[in-house]
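Before relying on records like the one below, remember that each one covers exactly one chain. Contacts with other chains, cofactors or solvent are not represented anywhere in the record.
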Amino acid sequence: QQKLTVCIAICLTMTACSRSPAPTQTSLTIAAASNLTSVMSEIAQAFEKETNLRVVISYGSTAQLAQQIEHGGPFDVYAAADTEHVDALIDKGKLQPSSRAIYARGQLVLWIPDASSHVQRIQDLTKPTIRFIAIAQPDLAPYGRAAVEALSAVGIWEQVQPKVAYANSISMAKQYASSGNASVAFTSQPLVLKERGTVLKVDPGLSQPLDQA
């Protein structure tokens, strides 16, 4: 998490310095992927002290934010959870190509709030005690796509698919598990570092790398 914080802070500083703000500009508007909610507020506070610019953050799934930008969303910075959406927006002339940078590689985790679920590995999700599995929509969120890839790689996707409860983002997937509407949730590590229960890191080799641009 510390590395992620430093990398994003550097990227924001580079972005702010890469152009000259309008004399009347008093704020910086950021479109940030949901997996950044635990670190972006800390970064924003430091950035505000450094620049005297107020930071306004809009969180959402990477795809939803990309769609807003494509339709003219008034953002200064786009911090995605993948590279594909950034590259697509560059191709469409919606982002400055020179501002593209990889700022982090994400870690997919399986969060089990209730220890009585006895989940010690991904394969345990096939147990009857696991009623619902929260996953972000794969077509909206890179972490959701990675979760499906991991479940397929260990050979249990067909078994657990009927249990899947899809969410619009990984933060919403976390809320499903936190509220008890799902037994477990696939989400990003920073979102559940301070949460109760068990956090299992998913082997990065089971899915495409979660490079974030």
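Helices lie at 2-17, 37-51, 62-70, 84-91, 142-153, 157-160, 170-178, 189-192.
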